[in-house]
Amino acid sequence: MDLYNLTAHELASLLTKRELLPIDICNSNIDRINGVEKSINALAHFDKGLALERSKALNGLPIFIKDNICVKDELTTCSSKILKGFKPPYSATVINKLTKENSVLMGKTNMDEFAFGSSTETSFYGPTRNPWDLDRIPGGSSGGSAAAVSAGEAVWALGSDTGGSIRQPAGLCGVVGLKPTYGRVSRYGLIAFASSLDQIGPITRDVEDSAMLLKIIAGHDSMDSTSADIPVPDYVSLIKKDIKGMRIGIPKEYFIEGMDKDVKAAVLEAIKKLESLGALCEDTSLPHTEYAVAVYYVVATAEASSNLARFDGVQYGLRSEKIKSMIDMYKKTRQEGFGDEAKRRIILGTFALSSGYYDAYYLKALKVRTLIKRDFDEAFKKFDAIVTPTSPTPAFKIGEKISDPLTMYLSDIFTISANLAGIPGISVPCGFTKNNLPIGLQVLGKPFDEETILRVAYNYEQNTEWHKKRPKL
Amino acid sequence: MSYEIVIGLEVHLQLNTKSKVFCGCSTDFGSEPNTQVCPVCLGFPGSLPVLNRRALELGAKVAIALKCQIAKKIRFDRKNYFYPDLPKDYQISQFNQPLAQRGNIAIILGEKEKNIRVRRVHLEEDTGKLFHQKDSSLIDFNRSGMPLLEIVSEPDISSPEEAYLYLTALKSILEYIDVSDCNMEEGSLRCDANISLRKKGEKELGVKTEIKNMNSFRGVKLALEYEAVRQKDVLEEGGKIRQETRLYNPGKGVTEPMRSKEEAHDYRYFPEPDLAPFDFGEDILKTIEKDMPELPEPKKNRFIKDYGLSNYDAGVIVSDRETADYFERCAKLYKNPKIIANWLMGDILAYMKEKSVHMRDLNLKPERLSGMLKMIDSGAITGKIAKTLLIEMIQTGRGPEDIVKEKGLEQITDADSLEIAIREVISENPKSVEDFKGGKDSAIMFLMGKVMQKTKGRANPNKANEMLRKRLKGDA
Prior knowledge:
heterodimer; A: alpha/beta; Amidase signature (AS) enzymes; eleven-stranded mixed beta sheet; 16 helices; about 40% helix; B: alpha+beta; Arc Repressor Mutant, subunit A; 3 domains; nine-stranded mixed beta sheet; three-stranded antiparallel beta sheet; elongated
């Protein structure tokens, strides 16, 4: 039995039965990392010795953390040069919650610099490769987490999702990725990209694991004013109910021209499967969908331009060595420390907030954001969940879109709306292309109703075989 | 040509909460640098602000005291600019919808009252503090995240003197409601001023300059006086005022250019996404309103009505809450409030000013002061002796009777003792005696002075005067 192929809930039950020790699981991950990490580059910071030491002391499951979530006294760099060597003096709330469960913190996963990207190509540590095809991207920005889980380097992992950064790489790597409702999981300790959109969420091998991990990390946090004081249900037991009579909307705006034929076919097939399981699927419309990408790139970059101002060379991270004055310190540090995409987004966001442009861009974007949210409010009066493809295409080639930001931005076209509306979404494997590339099915739900989307995803998954497939490495 | 001065003031007030506005760090003053800090007020990546409700309540208290309208929804904005004392490189502040708007503060100009309108009151976080050395700079973040309330006036202030009075009136209100130490030297109250000139009768405002770096109310007045003259000189020579920020140099007593409008920041304000807007509950406001102490203005009116004080006297006494409280405690013990007011505003305030003592540290129980006043009324001591006795009481903390007994300060009313002193004075000052007899009535003042001198101020003045006159006339 290859331990690295098992799910977290399978491993947990083996631990409970004492058929296994945490160190065995840790060793299986380390063996796998030794075998495949060189070709995948999913990890940003990993200390084998430390991981082993921890797994001896703790009786929980090992977990990998995206490189933008603070772990006290451990490298947390957002895969950016500007945070080179940065070790936060505190841990994120989600980390404290995991520690309470005796989780073994294994290390940090690679990501697009500051989560700016959909391909994990913008990392200071080089691109992560898709375990299903090493010439292709794993998606992003949580590409390291998705690839590590897919390749068996990690049992499960945390990612963060601002516009699709959990769901899209999960879809492209054939694993399960959940973006919780905005406010469901504390953002305290998540290095902000866009504060009104960011959420931490699980990337796992199956839906049950996703439910397990969400249960651990969710809940109100007095350190995060935007976290909601709403009880966290026991997802694992609730998702196993069937979906007979459940009303599911299929928005026509998510089946666009130019989308991959295999992706479309797989998703339509998945909808049939849901119907066969008793769900009532019906076409619907989310009319403002076409504005989502535009709104997102104004709101997200505006917030990012402000959130990233603090990387200035004063207190932590990189400070350029060639400086002559204070202004020089700011300029050179940021010039040397940020990559192209980070600079591009900071400039975009700064522009959108500038006096004279604020009303035309930022304010307008906020208004359209409200319209997008209203679309969902309307739809959820009629439906319990909405099903769409996670991405319009399967994983593309490394380098294929990196010099064409606009095309790159469109890879998040189906995932962005959920962040703008603050609603939860999950991506679950629903097939493969002719080239054997994974395809993801996205299920969107009402605010704080993760239970329903997990239930839809679980029922679908348990009646298909896709999630059992592993990449050949 | 004659010009009109237009001034608006921006006051930054540090609220006296126990912890900072967005984290739990202490707000104590004067600690070792960077000992009252945490990831939040250091702006570390991933940290998030959580509003200190107490700071908001204190802010609302100020707003109510300044008769402002309080916002129904509380929102925060980010003010973006780069500076090393600003750890996030943005300040959490309030821009579009401040905590409160449209209030006013009354100032007293001689016998007249003038209302200065308050444009807005908003809550924000303070920055750290920079210390510049020869070839490096150090930062102390203890102050970073301290709760600040910005109080902005309309340009209703027409002279540096009015600016001074506005600040005094504001400080008096703030001290009444106990929201801040209001200490300009320690930086718990800071003031920037906008000033412009326009030709008399003109409606449009002239080009303004912003003056910073004043560290006392007097400094504000002096800086504005200088700046008004400077602007007038420029205009009269046909020049134009540059819109700029100028720093007051207290050593030289001048304002110096700091940055011009072209160099001004575009702060790129936008709603703070880390703090969701929320309703400021009516019940909280009602509680704050209920707990509000009597403010200087209504107190003054009550003092005029209940104690028969003049507008001026009442104004002086209520300008400090503790002085007003002291006055009222004395008024319960002594029947003539006007006399209390005279002593309070005269010898007592003069003593406090000379020794730089605040009312709360004044070693003079109301019982002692009223006891002394009663001794004057009963004729036990003279008013003149009382002046010495007052100082003695404050310095020793002892009661008036004790001191009078021990030092033999009782008033001399018996005719024999007075007679001796009067005789001596007459024989020692023949010239003045002659003058008086020659019809120069004022000479008696001089002779009375001598009598007082001889009795060390203890002679009953009425009786001594009467006897002296008798004696002089008797000699005639």
